[in-house]
Amino acid sequence: MNKLILGRYFPGDSLIHRLDPRAKLISGIAFIFISFLAKNSQGLFLLWLFTFFVMSTTRVGFRAFFRGVRPLIWLILFTVFLQILFTAGGTIYFNWGPIKISEYGLANALFIFSRFVTIIVVTTAVTLTTKPMELTDGLTFLMRPLRILRVPVDELSMMLSIALRFIPNLLDEMQRIMDAQKARGAVFGEGSLFHQMKALVPIFLPLFSSSLNRGEELANVMDVRGYRSELPRSSFRRLIWKIKDTVCMLVILLLIAAFAVLNLI
Amino acid sequence: MKDLMIDVENVTFRYDRREQTDALSSVSFKAEKGKWLSVIGNNGAGKSTLAALLIGLIQPSQGTIRINGVALDEESKWTIRRSAGIVFQNPDNQFIGATVQDDVAFGLENLNVPADQMRLRVTEALETVGMLNYRTADPTQLSGGQKQRVAIAGVLALRPDLLILDEAFVMLDPRSRRELLATLKRLKTERDLTILSITHDMNEAAASDRILVLKQGHVARSDTPAHIFSEETELAAPFSERLRRLLLKKGRRAPESYRTESEMVQWLCD
Amino acid sequence: MAMRLRLDHVTADYQIGPVRSPRVLREVSMSLQPGTFTAVVGPTGAGKSSLLKVLNGLLLPQSGQAEIGDITIDGKSSKRLLKAVRKRVGLVFQFPESQLFAETVEQDISFGPLNFGAHPRNVHALAEKVIAQVGLDESILYRSPFSLSGGQKRRVAIAGVLALEPEVLALDEPTAGLDPTGKEELLSLLKQWNKQNGLTILMVTHDMESVARYADDVVVMEKGRAVFHDSMRKLFEDTERLEKWQLDVPDARRFQLEFEVRSGTRLPRVCLTEDELADALIEVGRV
């Protein structure tokens, strides 16, 4: 639970923290596409340079980013090895049946590895520096065009923000119930798998029942406070686009331009 | 006579038709504008059912409820809730916004109030309950008492005529409870706010204008604290009354009827 | 058998993921005599609940140690040792009804004893015993805990801890949310177990009326420290320090103070209940 760094907010006051969530979301998505534009060594260098620039600007510390990459490391390494072993072309350094380690294979592996890691780092930078509710606001705004397709954007965003709001409460509640059952002699994380699963019943049943209660109470509260999904609502929080957000977009455009130039020459 | 804020006539409610007993049966009472009405009674007496009925969460099987002259039904409840609010027992389950100010604004957002006006009203409401310094705090940073203050601010932002408290102070420590009560008393006089408070706290009930005693779904009594505590002797009583009853039991000199704490001290001094 | 509880310079905090909470207990030292009824009071966040958790082995001291009879726990105690402690000190959490999970009340009550290795054949008798102890009818054993009223659930949850047959019962605000009748009944039960069965009781509460009427001793917690541990009466006699710790006084005492100011007459002693106050008023000839 505590290892997952993606989707966690890291309080701070850096330039990136202060950017508009919309600017950050657009940049993050744009970066995923940009990473596919890196096709030569200069491009690769630029990709890493930009990534390090983002990492240091967040002032979160590199360790947080390493922890972001760690859960996915096996997936990354697996893909990298497939590339190394099964891509042919260029000079062949090693050959054993269908397995060849070739110049192209190594190069491809390096590109894939770089894409993977830089994408994770940059998207982590977005979530680390943006409060969950700001992320929701940004997403809601960006999803607005979907309203034309009758996607219930506002309901979705309300659901998302309430879910985010109650995660800490649920974790607290779980800790409390675990403690209470421990006090009654329950032991967790010991014995056979079957035993461990069985030990979870005294936690999850009460947690489930209290969540249902909580949900019902919450629905009542929303109802009496006049929430009606079918009526238009105004919004207390307003996103304000500032000059630095425009600058951020320009940087991204510049990055795209740089790649275009690198790929043409 | 002043205008009526709450007019309940012959209200009966049963949660489940298969059940033998009504949660509330033939309940009638009235509350005048600007008064503080306490509702007391043991758990299971139907107090929370009454609160849910008054705010339109459930509909009576029989009888009518009028809030500020408007008969409450599935349609009118939305209008009524523009000027009536309720605060429930559990502070954690009422906090909808991600921060204090977001939560206070929730009701206003639902009314589609323009953003600049909303800021004004949120600030005003938070100032009233003394939580303005916490406006950007998230709920995990607040104590139970502070969360209930925010919940009250959420109602006050609507500039309501009626505030219902459904055991809203049960989970608070005595000090935050007293402070909140003092705040509400001030609001009641300043804004002509009507308060209906469901409570177990006899000292709180004693300080209200009227008391409604519920017993197994019936109105056992509706009267002023003085009459209720003097005459309903099997009821738990505030301290001054406990002392008065004890003195009588010991065959000593005592006031002939209920006195507030301050009056009782005065009586002893004379 | 008399078991003593002793805390020796216990300092503790919670580790939640990478974040370390500020110290919740600082250098707490105290000794709890067997058979006493002790109330733990203090403002929210003063470390009252954490104190109970240390005695139950749920929160390990970072430095210092806790002695539960002949068992000593410190930061490195094994799970087995902690389990032994939990058998001796029963801990009832705040709103304990939220921990009920089994299909029947009997199964829920049996959960603890079975965890501690009780023989399945013996737990039925045990369940019958504790359900009677909490003042509920035996027939409730076969019902689902989710079908009970709030007050009944609370008692069933407490019965589930009593079933461990602990020597010390530690309770975190056991009367929170109960109506006046339910509250009075539960407190009388606690007092009864304390007096008749010699159960040591440690109860966290905000309610000074309960402290005045039921507790022998009081521990005052403030910012993670135990700043007072003495008899209940000593605490309420010390008006100055009560003020400093922002603690309330019982109704009778508040009434007495107001009376003394307004009448200019001092009552012969500190009164904590209406009985004491009435007697004192009679003594000075006011009534």
What is the element layout, followed by pairings?
The complex is a heterotrimer of chains A (265), B (270) and C (287).
Chain A: H1 15-18, H2 21-34, H3 41-58, H4 62-69, H5 73-86, E1 92-96, E2 99-102, H6 103-129, H7 132-143, H8 153-183, H9 193-224, H10 243-264
Antiparallel strand pairs in A: 1-2
Helix pairs in contact in A: 2-6, 2-7, 2-10, 3-6, 4-6, 5-6, 7-8, 8-9
Chain B: E1 4-13, E2 24-32, E3 36-40, H1 47-54, E4 62-67, E5 70-71, H2 76-80, E6 84-87, H3 100-110, H4 115-128, H5 144-156, E7 162-166, H6 174-191, E8 194-198, H7 202-206, E9 210-215, E10 218-223, H8 225-231, H9 239-249, H10 261-269
Parallel strand pairs in B: 3-8, 3-9, 6-7, 7-8
Antiparallel strand pairs in B: 1-2, 1-4, 4-5, 9-10
Helix pairs in contact in B: 3-4, 3-5, 4-5
Chain C: E1 5-12, E2 15-16, E3 19-20, E4 25-32, E5 37-41, H1 48-55, E6 63-68, E7 71-73, H2 79-88, E8 89-92, H3 105-115, H4 120-133, H5 150-162, E9 168-172, H6 180-196, E10 200-204, H7 208-214, E11 217-222, E12 225-231, H8 232-237, H9 239-244, H10 251-263, H11 274-283
Parallel strand pairs in C: 5-10, 5-11, 8-9, 9-10
Antiparallel strand pairs in C: 1-4, 1-6, 2-3, 6-7, 11-12
Helix pairs in contact in C: 3-4, 3-5, 4-5
Order of helix and strand elements from N to C terminus of chain C: EEEEEHEEHEHHHEHEHEEHHHH
Assembly form of the protein:
heterotrimer
Approximate helicity band of chain C? 40-55%
- For the termini of chain C, the CA-CA separation is 48 Å
| Overall 3D form of chain B | globular
Shape assignment of chain C: globular
Global structural class of chain C: alpha/beta
- The total domain count of chain B is 2
Find the biggest chain interface.
A-B, 30 and 38 residues
Number of helices of chain B: 10
Number of domains of chain C: 1
The ordered H/E elements of chain B are EEEHEEHEHHHEHEHEEHHH
User: If you average the pLDDT of chain C, what whole number results?
Assistant: 93
Low-confidence stretches of chain B at least 5 residues in length (pLDDT < 50)? none
Order of strands in the sheet with most strands of chain C = 8-9-10-5-11-12
Task: Give the integer mean of the pLDDT values of chain B.
Answer: 92
Strand order of the largest sheet of chain B: 6-7-8-3-9-10
Q: Any idea what the CATH superfamily of chain C is called? A: P-loop containing nucleotide triphosphate hydrolases
Main β-sheet description of chain B: 6 strands, mixed
Radius of gyration over C-alpha positions of chain B, nearest whole angstrom: 20 Å
Membrane topology (chain A): Multi-pass membrane protein
Keywords (chain A): Membrane, Transmembrane, Transmembrane helix
InterPro entries (chain A): ABC/ECF_trnsptr_transmembrane
Protein name (chain A): Energy-coupling factor transport system permease protein
